[in-house]
Amino acid sequence: MDGWSARDARDDELPLLTDLFEGEPPPPGAALTLVAVHDGRLLGCATAERPAPGHVRLTAIAVRPDARRRGVALRLLDELASRVAELPGPRPLLSAVVEASDIPGAGLLLKGGFVGTRVLRTGGDADGLCLHFQHKSRVEYVDPDARYLVPCGAREQLVESLAPPDQAVTALVPLSGRLAFEITRFEQDDPAALQSGEAAAGIAFSGAILAAITFLLGFAFTSTRFPDDVRLLLIGATFATVLSLIVYASASGELARIRSNSFARIMKYGNILSEYGGVLPFVISLPVTYAQASGDRWSTTVLAALLSVGLGWYEWSEFSIAHRYRKSAADLVLTAFTVLSPLTGAAVVATEVTSWPWTVSLAVALLGRTWLYLFRRGAEEGTSARRQWQVRE
Q1: 133: closest CA among 103, 97, 108?
Q2: Same domain, 24 and 45
Q3: CATH number, domain at 107?
Q4: Could you tell me what percent of the chain has a pLDDT over 90?
Q5: What integer pLDDT is reported at residue 87 of this predicted model?
Q6: Angle formed by the axes of helices 280-294 and 356-371, nearest 10°
Q7: Do residues 70 and 84 share a domain?
Q8: CA distances from 308 to 70, 76, 339, 347 (A)
Q9: Which of 79, 146, 296, 326 sits in a 20 to 30 Å window from 36, CA-based?
Q10: Are residues 218 and 242 in the same domain?
Q11: What does pTM read for this prediction?
């Protein structure tokens, strides 16, 4: 449906929501109330409460009968998940509870990125059986050989299937003319082992970069033609890389003290210092070094152009640090300057033009990107896909 949007409900719209809930007032205690609007007409509403700082519960979702099966409810769920992710502090869990007999409600949540993780008994009879759903905020992997189907009416089998903590309902599928829940087993990773491996990889990588920068710095000091400003750039790269090693060592210390809540934040500092303080200055200074060693302008220009193309591909690929953060106009300008730096630096040295302005501009650009990602971009962005699980290849 074109021309409609999901947004926060205004105070004057709250009385109008009674019609959406079939004459009943909206559930009390709502901390978030979102509405879907088309040409000034309310199409649907979703409400959620926040009983604790780390938990947001979807309490109700309703769509007008003439607007159903048009993606309105899914749009509301997506908007609600986005609002929850933007709340200050650690990201809270977004959950919902539906009766096991409410197959349309369960199907909607499954399409909206939720998985059924637990069976709750709210009464003494079978009708009191409910399913607890939670929204997947990060990608997890499933075992492709440990999936099976449970008919929606097989209550006891459903309770038994969701008893293990690593199993969840991930889909609603047709089975012999009826509907069945797909039960999937999620792989259980060891966070401490993964974080320890990540810290060790960071230390090894920064150590290798430090060795390469030190070698290039030694060549710079033995050459009488090497620009002093580029020497200072390499000295700064050496300092930044040593700092990244210290940060990675601190991350390892956090793991050793079982204080892994700070691990991601510390690794962010190490990764950014390593890339923008060590790797990029080293790579960008390579054409300058070649120009000093060879004196051949043509081959220097070709090498610098190839490095600029390679940097451009890397900066816009999924492997770069910048790919993990949202882009802004300032960031795009600084990225473009960084990509063109090998070519402009080689041209400056090859033509024997004063290189101080280029070196200062490059240092400012790298410092600006470091500041942006460390202090202005917050946590790394996750994937925006609704389905947050996949089969490990």
Answers
A1: 97
A2: yes
A3: 3.40.630.30
A4: 30
A5: 84
A6: 160
A7: yes
A8: 47, 43, 5, 13
A9: 326
A10: yes
A11: 0.60
